[in-house]
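[Automated response] Your request has been received and processed.

Submitted sequence:
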Amino acid sequence: MNKQSKINSTISNDVPCPFCGILCDDLVIENKNNSLKVLENGCAKAISSFEIEPSEVSAKLKGKNVSLDEAISSACKILKKSHTPLIAGLGTDVSGMRSVMELADKSGAILDHMHGNGLIRNTLVLQDLGWMMTTMSEIKNRSELVIFAGTDACNYPRFYERVIWNENAMFKKKNDDREIVYIGDNLNSKSGINPNGKRPTVLNCKTEQIGEIISSLHALVSGAVLDVKEVAGIKIKTLQTLAEKMKSTKYGVIVWAPGELNVPHADLIIQNFCETVKYLTRFTRFAGFALGGNDGGMTANSVCAWQSGYPLRVNFNKGYPDYDAHRYSTQNVLKNKEVDSLLWINSFNSDINSPRASIPTIVMGKPETKLNFKPDVFIPVSTPGIDHSGQIIRTDSVVSLPLKKIRQSPYSSVHSVIKQVIERM
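Generated structure:
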C-alpha cells in the first residue's frame, strides 16, 4: 500500500492560486491519489479551495441526472429560444471568457460578473476623470506610506506577507521605514503592525464618511485652511499631521477594495482617492491601488474590454456591443424583466450561488455547488488552476499568470462546454 501511495504521489512547486485576486504563485502542493494537500505558502482560502475532495456529480435537468451531452443539448435549446439571454457570474479563466464573448455575440446576450457592483465603481472613475495607479511590485519595492481606505485587506490573506512586510524588496526597504494608516469602520489593523512592533495609525469613521476624510486631506495638502475642529470625528490636527506625511513621503499609496465600499455613490469616494493622488504627484510620487479581481473578476472585465471595446455590463442584443454601467447589472435586468434566460458561470467558488429567477436557468458550476433551487440545466465544470491549465489576470491588471493542471478531473472546462454549445447553435 505504501509503495502504491508513493507511485501516485507528485509534488508541484510554484503553483499559482486562482482563488484570490493577488494570485500568489509560490504554493507547493502534493497530489496523492488525486487528493491535494497544500504543503507550503497556502493561506486559509487556498487550503480550503485546493484540499476540497473532488465530488462525483452528474449533469442534471431540473434535478434529474443526465449525460453531459443531454445537458448541453438542453442548454442549446434554451439559448436558441431566448431573445436576450443574461450570461452572468463569469467565474472563469481567459479561455473561458473568450468563449463567453463568442457565445454572447451569437446569442445577443448581456454580460455581467458576480462582483460587477465593485468592478463598476472603479470603472466609472476611470471613465470620468482617469487615475494614476501602481502595481503590487511597486508597493513592495518602493512604498513608504500605505493608506488603507475602507479596507484592511483581510479578504486577500497574504497581501501583507507578499507586499507590505516582504523582506525581499528590491531596494531593501526597512520595515520601520514603512508607515501604515487605516481609514474606516471596524478595520482589523493587526496586520498593519510591523515585525518590529510599530503600530499603524487608525482613523475610525463610518464607511460613508471616508470621502469626507479624504477630501479634507486633499484640501490640507493643497494648503487650504479648514475652519472646523474635526471632520467625521477625526481632529483636524490629526488630519494635518497625516497630510504633511503624504506630502513628504517619497512614495505613497492609497489602497481600497471597491467591493467593500458598499455604500451609495461609492464611486465618488473612489474619485476622491484618485483626485487626491493626482494632486500629491505635484510634490512626490503617489499612486492608487485597487484590491479586487476575485473569482475571475479582473479576467472577465479585461477580456470583455479587449474584445468589445467596453468593460462588463455590455448588451450584444442590438447586433453590436451596447454598454450601460447601471441598466445592464444582473439585478436590474432580472428585476426589469429585460432578459428571458440566464446562464450562470462559476468555476472558482461553490459558495456564491446563481440568483433564483423565474426564467429558464442554466448553471455551470463546481461539482460541490449547493444550489438553493433546481435550475433547468446544471453542468458541473472543472476548476482552472487545479483541473486544467489556463490563464488569469491579477488584481492590478498588469500580469497574466499561467495556471497549472495539478490533478485529473472527469469534468470539462467552461471553455470546452461553451464551445460545444456554440457549435450546436
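Summary generated for your ticket: The longest helix spans residues 266-280. Confidence is low (pLDDT under 50) at residues 1-5.
If you did not submit this request, please reply to this message.
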